[in-house]
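User: tokens in, sequence out, please.
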């Protein structure tokens, strides 16, 4: 690729925002076309490189997302559900590829992305890493091979700042397990056990969320039967894996037609 797409990073000061900015700047495959933060945020009006504690990079953080998007070919967005919905409309207006890493969106919010996807490419995944997307495929296969004698539990662990549970990744894994079993996750989902819950219901898919310290992201899919257990596990130790996946998605989306895609499309899994 000779032309390097310009990429805007939203939520520039966030854990993922800063990792994405570093990843784009170091990639040699894209340019940093903008950095967006909330109105009133202390980084707005300042050079993003300096705010990250390094050299100036010539990109001033702005709260004017549409202005930034209109100068870019892609937007990488790891923020919060309400912000992502607003950004989807603006990215579509600017005809920029919108890569969405934000988790915790409700089904209603996800449905609201549809109008934007008629005009622009949207690539959304609760986890952008190669490893997790492979694990999703494995989970589907294992669930399809086993019957309900195997209880399926998804156990996830994240840092203490995380605001949504179960994690987006846990839900991807739960969806994959449900698909493998030929059921709808909504019909068998069991999250947040507490108190006298009664015995586990056969066929349910359970979720457990651990929050603590600086855990980047850990996911187990447990298949537990009488006398044996299978555990499929992914451990993330560096947020760079998510940022690399998101950049790959932004580049992949450049020659695609409007619509909604995920990392399985991007990675060809
Ligand atoms: N899909 C993946 O691979 C993946 C990986 C890691 C994190 N995530 C998700 O990414 C999201 C962000 O995670 P984080 O750890 O970086 O959180 P964070 O709290 O560190 O960062 C979020 C940033 O978004 C900014 N923001 C919020 N509303 C905004 C708005 N309206 N305009 C501009 N900026 C706004 C905040 O100011 C903050 O800087 C979460 O939903 C998380 O679950 C997804
Ligand atoms: O740090 C987070 O927040 C993460 N969120 C994603 C999720 O909800 O699964 C991916 C892992 C890190």
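Assistant: Sequence out:
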């Amino acid at each position: 690729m000779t032309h390097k797409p310009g990429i805007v990073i939203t939520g520039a000061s966030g854990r993922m925002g800063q990792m994405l900015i570093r990843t784009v700047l170091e990639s040699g495959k894209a340019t940093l076309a903008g950095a967006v933060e909330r109105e009133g945020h202390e980084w707005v009006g300042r050079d993003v490189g300096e705010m990250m504690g390094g050299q100036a990079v010539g990109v001033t953080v702005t709260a004017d997302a549409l202005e930034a998007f209109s100068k870019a070919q892609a937007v990488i967005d790891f923020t919060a559900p309400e912000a992502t919905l607003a950004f989807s409309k603006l990215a579509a207006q600017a005809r920029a590829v919108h890569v969405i890493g934000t988790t915790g969106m409700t089904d209603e919010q996800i449905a609201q992305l549809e109008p934007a996807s008629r005009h622009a490419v949207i690539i959304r995944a609760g986890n952008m890493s190669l490893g997790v997307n492979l694990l999703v495929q494995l989970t589907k296969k294992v669930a399809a091979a086993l019957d309900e004698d195997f209880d399926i539990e998804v156990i996830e662990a994240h840092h203490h700042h995380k605001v949504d549970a179960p994690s987006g990744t846990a839900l991807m894994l739960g969806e994959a397990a449900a698909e493998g079993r030929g059921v709808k996750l909504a019909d068998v989902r069991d999250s947040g056990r507490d108190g006298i819950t009664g015995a586990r219901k056969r066929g349910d898919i359970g979720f457990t969320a651990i929050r603590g310290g600086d855990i980047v992201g850990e996911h187990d899919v447990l298949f537990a039967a009488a006398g044996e257990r299978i555990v499929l596990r992914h451990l993330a130790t560096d947020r760079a894996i998510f940022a690399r996946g998101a950049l790959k998605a932004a580049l992949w989306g450049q020659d695609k037609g409007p619509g909604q895609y995920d990392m399985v499309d991007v990675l060809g899994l």
